[in-house]
Every structure is written in C-alpha cells, then in structure tokens.
Amino acid sequence: MDATDAHLAAQYEAYPYPQRDPREEARRLIVGSPSHLREIDHWIFGARRPAGRPLRALMAGGGSGDGTMMLAQQMAWAGRPGEVVWLDRSAAARQVAEARARQRGLSNIRFVGGSLLDLPALGLGAFDYIDCCGVLHHLPDPAAGLAALAGALAPGGGIGLMVYAPHGRTGVYMLQDALRLLAPEGEPPAARVEAARRLWKHLPETAWLRRNPWITDHLDGGDAGLYDLLLNPRDVSFSVPQLAALIGGAGLRLRCFVEPLRYDPDRYLPDPRLRARTAGLDPVARAALAESICGNMGIHIAYVTRDEAPAPAWDDPASIPVLRELDGAALAKGLPRDGVMRVAFDGLRLGVPLPRLASAILARVDGQRSLGEIGDALAANGISREAFARDWAALRDAMEPLNRLLLAAPPG
C-alpha cells in the first residue's frame, strides 16, 4: 500500500460506493452489466453450460453490493445452485452489502474481507465467473490485478470487466486537477466534498464537465458519487487499445464489448468509401475507431475468457432464446410499423432494421420455448421453415449486438 492507496482505502471507508440505502431493496433490484446472469450464460459460456451445474462467482471489489445483489438474486429466482463470493477490503462497504443481502433474504452470498491482490493467499479456490467492476482503474498496477483474477479462474471460466474510458469522461480529469489544488488529499473527506460542491456551484459554463451530459455521478450519486468521480486519488482510464493490451497481457481473450453494436464503426458511417476503409481494420482497431468518433463512452464493459469461448448455438432447434430485461410479447406489440427499432446510447440514437417476422418471433420468445418450438408455432400459422430461418438469423444479427437477444443456459 502506497500513500495514494492509503487515501483510496480511507475514501471507501468514509463513502462506501455506490451510495445505497439497504431499505430500498424491497422496492427494486439494480440491474446492469457486467454480471447479469443471462449475459454470463451467453457471453462467457456460449449457452452451453447446464443451468443445474453449480456456479461459483467472485465479486472482486464488491463495494456496496450492486453486482453481488443482482447476480445472487437472479440465481435465487432461477433456482440456480452455487454461491457468490463478495470480496472487498472496505468494512463500511461490507456493512452496506450485508444489510442489503439481509433485506433480500439471500443465503447464497459469502462475504470475505480482503484485496483481490491477495487472492492466492486467501484460499478461496477457483471461480467459474469473476466480476471486476470499477476496480482495476484504481489499482497501483492494473496488470497485476487482472493477472491475479486470471489466476483464480476455473477452466472454461470468464471475467466481466468495467473500466473507465477517456473520451466520455471529458472534463472529469480537469476538475480532479483543480480539486487537488483546492482540496488536497490530506484533508478530511467531508471537507473535500464540501469544497467540491462549492466548486461545482461556481464552475464557469466553459468547463468541459458542464458540457458533458453523460457523466452524472457528481449530480445524482450522493457524496459517495461525487467523491469517487472528482476526488478519487487514483483514477486511470483505458482506451480500447489500452484495455485490449491489458487483457492480452493477462493471457486472456476478449469475448466482446458491451454492447457490441456500439463498437461497430459501420453503424455510424454510411459512406461506402469510409466503410471500405473500415473493412481493412482488425476488430480492436474497429472498436477503437467507434470509441473515437462517438466520443460518449465513459466506461468500457468487456467479457473476457482464458480459454476460447464456445459460440452460442443459434441454429440448434433445442436452443432457448431469451430477452434481457425485455418482455417478448410487449416488445412485439410496440415495434414500429416501419420495422426499424430505435435505440439510444448516451445521447447517440441509432435505427436497427428488423426483419418482417420480427414481431411474430419476439412474441414467442419467453425463455421457455426452444427455437424448434417457435418454428413449429409459426409453421402452424402458415409461415414456411425457410422464411423463419431467414428472419430468425436477421433478428439475431440485429439484437444480439444490442445485448438484448441471447441464448439461455441449457437445462440439466
């Protein structure tokens, strides 16, 4: 632990992050990426790992527990065996996370105090899935942190990562520089927060963070959000190439960025001459181009594996399609008549064309029926197998990159 790390540890004792009230667990489950159970099944295991096989998950730097609550609750609702191990060195964050788990009555969480850098000495065993969300960019050596996580993976396992990205955080680092002068790290956390709030109140309109609508932790994240964003003693962002290099350096493979569609530059460049140029770029360069031209990516979320991840069996009649946080019947009813689904990512709006049979197919995607059963139901209504196969492939190509249409873990 260096001096900066000591300040970081003190920060999360004073302001566990994110700021959460355990009493709110009765009203809602906070859902996001990475570590949504359906994403893990699809992106890490290629929808090949049986649902009845126990899942050991590690939340490395679990904080106040958002990812832990989400995954543990989803496993409990689905009757999935296994455990979620929360690991963090903040005692204050542990109190919040444990209180949230009690509110939910979850018994599949194990709480362990410590750092992810101490994994070899903690004796926790190997994990099928590891979440590391918002942690690597605060470590003195992110490469050592990711290497420690890679070493704790079970065969066939994978990791869900979230790190800060530079372009979408325009303005953040300028204010961090200002606050190092106005509110030095040696001051008590509460005094630093008070100074930061005063600075924001009087910040000129020309300040870049004033013009950045996608960063809001200082506005709606409470004192913990403001401290983490503007007063954090160590905050390193990663561009796509830098993150890819970090992943490769740990002996890991990039499975996908989330959402994959955002990292496809052709989605933003209809000009055929520009597309001819993008066609010559490798996958990482294409993703880097998308990041650079969009400018609104404040974080990168990635799923990575040590072994080559199996591809989902999209054409297998036994595969069961699922929608992530969407109701198929409701979605089908609400599709625009022109067949173009409108989506938005941090102020960026895109149209995603859907095939003619999209509504008929989506109405039958309920997480229970297999592809074969959906095809049978459409055939009974006079839709040919060929038409279903063609439009199913088109629907998959449209919605999997949105991280919305996935395949479920097989039963058993």
TrEMBL record:
List the CDD domains: AdoMet_MTases (cd02440)
Which stretches make up the Methyltransferase type domain? Answer: 60-158
Is Transferase one of the keywords?
yes
Report the record's Gene Ontology biological process terms.
Answer: methylation
Which InterPro entries is this protein grouped with? Methyltransf_12 (IPR013217), SAM-dependent_MTases_sf (IPR029063)
Any single GO molecular-function term of the entry would be:
methyltransferase activity
Please, which domain of life does this record's source organism belong to? Bacteria
**What keywords does the record list, in alphabetical order?**
Methyltransferase, Transferase
Write down what this protein is called: Methyltransferase
Organism of origin is Teichococcus rhizosphaerae
